[in-house]
Inverse folding.
């Protein structure tokens, strides 16, 4: 290979893999071990970030490069591997996890027969059968339920676990039975907060579709302050309910869904505005009027006894 051929191959490799390459790939285009040591050594332009993995520049890695480097360490694409855990949840866009740039440990899932171990910031999980991955920004990512199971396994925060499970069911439409099956198969249902949350999510009427922009638009038309979206409310420290929206100063809760029986929010004295899903489009003016009336007549209920725990409500939108 001529010098020009080598330079061209290196540029293509850097471009196609955003500067994350393996030692084997470099060797394949003619980079010798001596040249590699020199370029990765002090003052050189490259850096070894993991065994057998090189980044063709100095400095901190981007979130994508960290994920791609973890996959390269796991042998991808020559060997089967996919991102899982919190890194995968972040790439799926889960609201309750860190953005990809803030994920410090990258989890990878590989077949059970692979003799691959956790190394520094790459945590390795083994599976007898790998699920079909989804491609997110050209990265193979485990499906939501599998990624959540590995994220839950690594977490020591029961409040975070509860928030993730609720988001999966309420916002992502995951079947509670499917989620429970994944966690129980992985022997995770005994972790604090999981079994209680799974029972709660399985209750009739607790499975909800993702809320759309219609709700946000109607709330904005009411002229109210932004509410807390889907918070967890507790009465004297005991779980009360998780309405679709809640105005803490007024003691007003918005619940989108079919009419049901008595609600704990009613029995404790809070004001509940119930909106059938079809009313969002067929009678939006009535929804806005009901919200204004409820908010204008407040405060309602024992506000000093009702708390949002643990800060699960978001004012940024649905």
């Amino acid at each position: 290979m001529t010098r020009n051929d080598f330079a061209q191959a290196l540029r293509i490799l850097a471009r196609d893999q955003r500067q994350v390459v393996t030692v084997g790939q470099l060797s394949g285009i003619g980079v010798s071990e001596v040249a590699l040591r020199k370029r990765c050594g002090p003052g050189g332009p490259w850096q070894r970030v993991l065994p057998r993995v090189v980044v063709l520049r100095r400095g901190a890695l981007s979130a994508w490069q960290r994920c791609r480097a973890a996959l390269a360490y796991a042998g991808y694409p020559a060997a089967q591997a996919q991102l899982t855990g919190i890194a995968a949840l972040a790439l799926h866009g889960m609201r309750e996890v860190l953005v990809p740039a803030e994920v410090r440990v990258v989890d990878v899932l590989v077949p059970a027969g692979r003799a691959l171990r956790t190394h520094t910031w790459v945590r390795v999980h083994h599976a007898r059968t790998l699920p079909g991955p989804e491609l997110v920004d050209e990265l193979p990512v485990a499906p939501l339920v599998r990624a959540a199971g590995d994220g839950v396994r690594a977490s020591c925060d029961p409040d975070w676990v509860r928030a993730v499970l609720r988001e999966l069911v309420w916002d992502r439409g995951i079947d509670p039975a499917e989620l429970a099956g994944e966690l129980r198969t992985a022997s995770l249902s005994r972790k604090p907060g999981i079994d209680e949350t799974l029972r709660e999510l399985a209750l009739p009427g607790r499975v909800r579709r993702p809320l759309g922009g219609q709700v946000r638009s109607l709330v904005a038309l009411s002229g109210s302050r932004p509410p807390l979206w889907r918070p967890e409310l507790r009465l004297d420290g005991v779980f009360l309910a998780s309405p679709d929206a809640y105005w803490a100063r007024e003691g007003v809760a918005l619940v989108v869904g079919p009419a049901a029986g008595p609600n704990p929010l009613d029995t404790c004295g809070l004001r509940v505005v119930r909106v059938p899903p079809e009313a969002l489009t067929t009678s939006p003016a009535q929804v806005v009027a009901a919200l204004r009336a409820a908010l204008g007549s407040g405060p309602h209920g024992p506000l000093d006894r009702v708390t949002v725990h643990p800060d699960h409500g978001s004012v940024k939108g649905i």
